[in-house]
């Protein structure tokens, strides 16, 4: 028997693999360094302070300040032309905000959800909310398009959580204080998340989930506006579609047709101007001005006909003046701090997700980048300072951002312009809005919600990815038929489970050689080739007696170790049956796509190695990456497999296997 | 200017890639087929019914029956020799079980945790528990080594949950009924999980978590045994180390030194025999018999000296006879069903995880395979039938399995032997155990727990994988310092978060060409090469103007889309700086290791493509897999990138880029 001698084997190995698999530096890498590198890459993917070390202290401080305060970054090159655009955009979104700040969506929903009997009570906080936060955002925000303001979803959420503790109708003062306190906690949470660089948390709210959630919320808010459209004075505290419709049809005696007629007219006008804007983007100011026009016309109309006596409820007395300080109003007593914290944290997470998603969507249209962590800090400061100045929770608002974008804003300065306009109105013009019919506000809110049910995007999801569609539909239906928290919870849970399922079931596939070089033949020495999934490329060539398996798509870890063991065993069995005549002698595991392995994963590989050895097969490993090689060495598995059975490429591994196979066919034994 | 003509480009493409990237069949695959394939691979990784279609009905039925009832599988080839081994092993584990069934760990802990004042009450269910379930397992179980019986952890859990509703000292009958009912729900849950093929759930309890949990639980149970060792008659219901030690040192007046002396003697004897077994595995019967010996000696000793009058509490009257039916005792009233369900489900999950883990560990030592789903069904039936016959929750018990394995069992028949031995003892010998000193049982339990704190495995985890060690330590400390549920919850939460982190932060790396063929030079036409991480292989050759980036380790999805966008942008920026002189013109994305992509992932690729185009760079994609190619086509991204810019291998992509690069340097424009 002409056995392959160790020397021959060595030479063959060397011939086929001049560059050995690199295990050494990995093994030497200390835990601290590896953990630091992993942590840095996890939390600072953008690595903001590269190359700071070499700078003089003053420049370094300036660079750090510029990083943390984006206004310093853009103000350096700020020109009169830019200001002109920002001024225009700012006035436009202020137009949108003034009626909204008189009664923003949140107030309408707050009122309805708190089911107050009178619409004339004092001290509803939201009427101030648009003034201070935009100023903060103008300085701290990293997005150039975002228009900030209160949003309906988080307002409703705060209202429902705080309302569970104190009803606004029972103790208006305490209720307001709790709302401010929850804004404070929102600010603390958001700023802390940003400073801890946990922008990563927001990543787990997927866009399909947000789409479904926004669509469902828009439907719920539109349902709430039926109160205004029907001129009803009472309303249910529930938000799900079944309860709301049941309440409405059980209370037909409250309906007042005058409100309905006026509301439908307003709505048709608003939808028409929106259509005009869509067809002719240059006429954006028509649709941007129309909410203010509706409010003005509504005011004049209801003042002239004394609408509140003829079935058209009006807003009532508005408090005039600038936001008072509310620092002394924050309630940190143990009795209330729990509910304020809960309201603040839950709606804060939600507001963050919504604001960041809105910012991202528009930034993507301009090919700009938004830093999730900076946005978090900006939102946090916005709400912290807001809670000190009688403001409600604010975030990036979709409709405002859309208008800001279409109006051609250049920087966050447009938010400052909006803020100044708001302040002027609050100081000088507040009494004018007294006669605003509630139905006018309902029409404005409804028209702005219509665009948020993105049926086209939902249909597209259905076409491209059924699982994403399921997430989106679950969120939408959850919000509509239950509560907003249910919808969001279900959507996030499905998303997370889906991500976990990817981890639990990584992909294994049998690879074959696909030639794509200019050389001829499928021999070992052809020009260029790739090892691809034989299921995808049925023409891929496999070598008899050698099975190349690829494991990819997930780290090899506790969640999939058992699955992989079974799946690899099944591949081997299938292959044994397929090559019934000849023996299967080599199993090459391509783990180049495996980025990490934990100890159950290592145990799995050890078991696979043992099982194959028992069957008289040899296991080879292709291209272990740094983190994996490290563990292979530490656990002793590298030694068990043998370093000469670790290869850089599948081609190399197959060539080596084939070489020893030929040796053994001619009477030699495969070197083990 | 000698521009590259379309024809030339086509030829070049063809020359370099005879096999085009396969996008078509993927696009044609209907959703139903794809979903079915994914579901089948997720739930039936072992694909048990392959090739059934071609068989005659009778054989097919036989094969299915053999699949579901493993006993049919092994009984066909069962021989007298095998039975001899099983008999020996069965008698051995019965020896271990008889004292344990008189007062198994669960009873001791049940008693202590229920804090009963008298040790003489009737009707404690556990004394029956070892009789029926092993018979069921002998028929249904897929493991050949597993010894079944009640385990301390799930018993303690049931005791603490049911004890929260009804104290055993208040209403012994109701308490017992609730314990049976919880066993019923455990059975239902386990069988349902098995039938639904959700063995996947157990995968998320990682081995490090189970190691920590078992170690912590062993410590807690040993602490509970201090009651026996100190001869105390009352004990605290808490299980955490602080509460237990505080109770013990606040009640020094209860201590009785006689029990301590006797207990320490027994413990030394048991530990000594265990050491004998370890040094000389052939003497396993010494350690296997020693528990029974301790019980017998203890009985005789306390009978002779009337121990219960001299500070040595005894077991007291044992009910004689076989298990009565308990079907009529199950409580399904709304008042109790909740607590029974909770106890049953929580401890059922735990028992399942423990039993499957134990089965796997020993199967791995014999290179056998265990089917998680079959085990679930077997455990479920075991507990269902057990709940009808006055049995407590049972599962695979570690100590019993270890003894069974060392005693040389061949099949699950050893469980049947154990069961018969138990029945004989229950019918004929029960009164003999009346005088058993409680401290003897405490010593037996303590000695069996000593081996469960696997300090060597924990130290090994620390060396190989710090994150796994953290999971293990969290579970252990959680159990010891809080409750078992806390410990398990913390461990599972850390494991899941870690898995999610892998999804949120996939690996990106810059690849370079490492030659490992026998050809010479690093030219495009060399023999064999691999593209490897340049951080791992510093010698890897990169082509100027071309950046090859690999994305691997996770599906590209909502959780990492934004991260990948930022990370890829940073790689491109770094590369631009690094090749300051020359232009970076091509970015090759190697997504061969990406197994799935969702719609936010697609959007990310679209944004990256747009961003690169804005910079005047061209994006190429290497080796998209079937599922990914499908989405690329459906979403229109394949068209955007251009099919001629999708390659099978990195080598091919680089060669094509280099070719067009040369063309453009000589005055041509890169084809877009």
Automatic annotation (TrEMBL), chains A, B:
Annotated TM spans: 174-196, 208-226, 255-272, 284-305, 377-399, 411-429, 436-453, 473-501
Top-level division of the source organism's lineage: Eukaryota
Keyword Membrane: yes
Organism: Oryza glumipatula
Coiled-coil portions: none
Domain STAS span(s) in chain numbering: 554-657
GO biological process, one term: transmembrane transport
Keyword terms: Membrane, Transmembrane, Transmembrane helix
Subcellular locations according to the entry: Membrane
A UniProt-annotated Pfam family: STAS
Name recorded for this polypeptide: STAS domain-containing protein
Membrane topology of the entry: Multi-pass membrane protein
GO CC list: membrane
Keyword Transport in annotation: no
InterPro entries: SLC26A/SulP_dom (IPR011547), SLC26A/SulP_fam (IPR001902), STAS_dom (IPR002645), STAS_dom_sf (IPR036513)
NCBIfam families per record: sulP
């Amino acid at each position: 028997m002409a056995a392959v001698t160790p020397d021959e084997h060595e030479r063959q190995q060397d011939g086929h693999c001049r560059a050995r698999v690199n295990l050494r530096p990995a093994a030497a890498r200390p835990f601290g360094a590896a953990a630091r590198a992993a942590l840095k890459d996890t939390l600072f993917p953008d690595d903001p302070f590269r190359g700071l070390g070499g700078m003089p202290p003053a420049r370094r401080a300036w660079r750090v300040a510029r990083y943390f305060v984006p206004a310093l970054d853009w103000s350096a090159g700020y020109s009169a032309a830019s200001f002109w655009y920002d001024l225009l955009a700012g006035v436009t979104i202020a137009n949108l905000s003034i009626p909204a700040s008189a009664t923003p969506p949140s107030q309408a929903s707050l009122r309805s959800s708190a089911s107050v009997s009178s619409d004339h009570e004092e001290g509803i906080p939201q009427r101030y909310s648009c003034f201070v936060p935009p100023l903060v955002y103008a300085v701290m925000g990293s997005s150039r398009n975002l228009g900030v303001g209160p949003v309906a979803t988080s307002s409703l959420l705060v209202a429902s959580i705080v309302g569970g503790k104190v009803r606004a109708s029972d103790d208006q003062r305490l209720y307001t204080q709790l709302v401010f306190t929850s804004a404070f906690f929102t600010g603390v949470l958001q700023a802390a998340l940003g400073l801890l660089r946990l922008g990563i948390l927001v990543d787990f709210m997927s866009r399909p989930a947000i789409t479904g959630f926004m669509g469902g919320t828009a439907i719920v808010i539109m349902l709430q506006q039926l109160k205004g459209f029907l001129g009803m004075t009472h309303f249910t505290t529930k938000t799900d579609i079944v309860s709301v419709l049941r309440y409405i049809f059980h209370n037909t005696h409250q309906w007042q047709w005058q409100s309905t007629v006026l509301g439908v007219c307003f709505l048709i006008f608003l939808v028409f101007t929106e259509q005009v804007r869509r067809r002719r983007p240059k006429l954006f100011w028509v649709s941007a001005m129309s909410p203010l026009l509706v409010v003005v016309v509504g005011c004049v109309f209801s003042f002239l006909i004394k609408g509140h006596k003829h079935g058209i409820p009006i807003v009532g007395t508005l408090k005039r003046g600038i936001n008072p300080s509310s620092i002394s109003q924050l309630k940190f007593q143990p009795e209330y701090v729990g509910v304020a914290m809960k309201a603040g944290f839950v709606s804060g997470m939600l507001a963050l997700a919504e604001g960041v998603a809105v910012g991202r969507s528009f930034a993507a249209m301009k090919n700009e980048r938004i830093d999730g962590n900076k946005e978090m800090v900006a939102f946090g400061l916005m709400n912290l300072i807001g809670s000190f100045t009688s403001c409600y929770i604010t975030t990036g608002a979709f409709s405002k951002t859309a208008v800001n974008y279409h109006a051609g804003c250049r920087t966050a300065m447009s938010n400052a312009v909006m803020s100044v306009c708001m302040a002027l109105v609050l100081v000088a013009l507040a009494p004018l809005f007294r006669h605003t019919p509630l139905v006018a506000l309902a029409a404005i809110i409804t028209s702005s919600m219509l665009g948020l049910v993105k049926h086209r995007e939902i249909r597209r999801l259905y076409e491209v990815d059924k699982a994403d569609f399921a997430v989106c539909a679950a969120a939408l239906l959850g919000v509509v038929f239950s509560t907003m928290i249910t919808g969001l919870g279900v959507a996030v849970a499905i998303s997370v489970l889906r991500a976990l399922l990817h981890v639990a079931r990584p992909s294994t596939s049998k690879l074959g050689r696909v030639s794509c070089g200019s050389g001829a033949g499928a021999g070992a020495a052809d020009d260029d080739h790739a090892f691809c999934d034989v299921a995808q490329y049925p023409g891929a060539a496999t070598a008899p007696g050698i099975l190349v398996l690829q494991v990819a798509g997930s780290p090899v870890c506790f969640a999939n170790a058992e699955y992989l063991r079974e799946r690899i065993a099944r591949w081997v069995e299938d292959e044994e049956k397929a090559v019934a005549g000849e023996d299967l002698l080599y199993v090459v595991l391509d783990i180049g796509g495996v980025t990490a392995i934990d100890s159950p994963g290592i145990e799995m590989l050890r078991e696979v190695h043992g099982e194959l050895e028992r069957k008289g097969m040899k296991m080879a490993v292709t291209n272990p990456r740094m983190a994996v090689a490290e563990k292979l060495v530490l656990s002793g598995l590298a030694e068990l497999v043998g370093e000469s059975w670790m290869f850089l490429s599948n081609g190399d591994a197959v060539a080596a296997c084939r070489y020893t196979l030929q040796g053994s066919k001619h009477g030699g034994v495969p070197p083990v």
